Amino acid sequence: MVDFSISSDIQAIIDPIRAFVRDELVPLEADGLTTPFRQLIPTLKEKRAKVKELGFFAPYLEKEHGGLGLSLLEFAHVSEALAYSPFGHYVFNCQAPDIGNMEVLLQYGTQAQQAEFLGPLMRGDTRSCFSMTEPENPGSNPVLMDTQAVLDGDEWVINGHKWFTSSADGSAFAIVMAVTEPDSDNPYARASQILVPTSTPGFHLVRNIPIMGEAGEDYLSHAEVRYENCRVPKDNLIGERGQGFVIAQQRLGPGRIHHCMRWIGICERAFDLMCERAATRVIAPGRMLASKQTIQNWVAESRAEINAARLMVLESAWRIDKEGSYAARDSISVIKFYVAGILHRVLDRAIQTFGARGITEETPLSFWYRHERGARIYDGPDEVHKASVAKRILKRYGGEA
Ligand SMILES: Cc1cc2nc3c(=O)[nH]c(=O)nc-3n(C[C@H](O)[C@H](O)[C@H](O)COP(=O)(O)OP(=O)(O)OC[C@H]3O[C@@H](n4cnc5c(N)ncnc54)[C@H](O)[C@@H]3O)c2cc1C
What is the DSSP string of 182-251? Predict the structure, then answer.
């Protein structure tokens, strides 16, 4: 029996988190969305201290690591609550890519790696990044990768060119995907994941790439990085040689639940903003925007789509908790493109409802429209997920791709 009702224990966590986001983070948006990120850090640090006092910092971690020991399904509800404000995930230390890097280091890190890299990350003292995609190669087929790591004595020597290494600016370290076994017959066994402190000579952050006109900085940025004879200790290898894709695959299942529930939280905020605007905007004497059928259709369609999306994501999270990411791979692919599409539509309708104000920074809508367009591209573009689900389904009917 699948039961998605929220237990009273989890509700007792979600209610104060929602209140914190509404009372402490939403008010930051008025200035915060147009302030360079580094200038915001002192304020965000103060908010993080309050979250720590409440005992809600990094809630997905096991209790022994200072978290709340939530299941993926439970954390999915928390993630939705955090996403109501663009600052939620960062302030609660739940932001990508750190959360994925923490999961990788918890599962595969040696004791020494955990002490050096994971501990400070869990405490929120540092940030990290994940460096896989290359401008010269298709990210949607990452076995085509040029970055190489060659063992020279006790050190890996890394050479390569990456981009869209999100949040590299200001990160303490990168987890780099590099080819270490070029001669393996299995293309999925050629790459490894290696820890590279960003202070290492040969780690060059070339630039923060302008995204829709905004380069951003620090956590809110996507960097181009060159690795030029970048030397790190042999022991910085995560897991086994050639295990890079296995590790990457394991991080992607829960990672997609995190993204999808974040998008649903964003949808809920956009929905609230759209409805509030429609209910209060006078469009003709005595007539509100809400009286127009087009708006009513958008409200009804958005409500139905968000509700459906949430149930689909919770079902995937439940399946991962019960059966693991591999068994849940079809549902994970389906939610990845389905929820990203709904996010895009709901944001677009909300912006349209606001008219010109919708593309100003007076609401978070335009911030999300810029920052979340990538949802349909990262962690597998829509088309790749659709193709892989469809192929598996058609195979059951005897169809070959
Ligand atoms: C906001 C954002 C953040 C990111 N953060 C990171 C990060 O932190 N670390 C990192 O390593 N990477 C990151 N990426 C990169 C991301 O993983 C890649 O953009 C993604 O894998 C797609 O690769 P690509 O951009 O090279 O597009 P390509 O692989 O060149 O694909 C281009 C387009 O071709 C189409 N396409 C591709 N394959 C198929 C197919 N099989 N069937 C049909 N159509 C297809 C799709 O429409 C796709 O959008 C990020 C990207 C974005 C947008």
Answer: TT-SSGGGSEEEEEEETTSTTEEEEEEPPBTTB-EETTEEEEEEEEEEEEEEGGGEESSTT-HHHHHHHH
For residue 375, report the distance from its CA to the centre of ligand 1, in Å. 10
Atom nearest to 141 CA in ligand 1: 29
Q: Tell me the mean pLDDT in the region 383-394.
A: 94
CB contact at 8 A, 58 and 122: yes
The pLDDT score that the predictor gives to residue 401 is 63
Beta pairing class for 173-179 and 128-131 = parallel
- Fold exhibited by the domain 8-123: Butyryl-Coa Dehydrogenase, subunit A; domain 1 (1.10.540)
Helix (H) or strand (E) holding 103, with range, is helix 98-108
Q: Given this model, what pLDDT does residue 326 score?
A: 85
pTM of the model: 0.96
> Domain 246-396 - what CATH class?
mainly alpha
Detail the DSSP E strand segments found in 5-53. Answer: none
Asked if the model's pLDDT at residue 36 lies above 90, the reply is yes
User: What is the distance in A from the centroid of ligand 1 to the CA of 134?
Assistant: 10
Is the Cβ–Cβ distance between 163 and 195 less than 8 Å? no
- Multiple choice CATH, 128-238, 2.40.110.10, 3.90.10.10, 2.60.40.1220, 3.40.50.10490: 2.40.110.10
CA distance 96 to 230: 25
Encode pLDDT of 123-134 as tens digits: 999 999 999 999
Mean pLDDT is lowest, of 29-33, 280-284, 355-359, for 29-33
Strand partners, 230: 158
Domain-by-domain residue ranges, the chain? 8-123, 128-238, 246-396
- How many Å lie between the centroid of ligand 1 and the Cα of residue 137? 10
Q: Which residue has the higher pLDDT, 307 or 401?
A: 307
Pocket probe for ligand 1: among 251, 262, 377, the residue whose CB has the most ligand atoms within 8 Å is: 377
- What does the block give as tokens for 338? 């389905």
Average pLDDT, the chain: 95
For 49-171, strand residue ranges (E) read 128-131, 148-152, 155-166
Cβ 158 vs Cβ 232: under 8 Å: yes
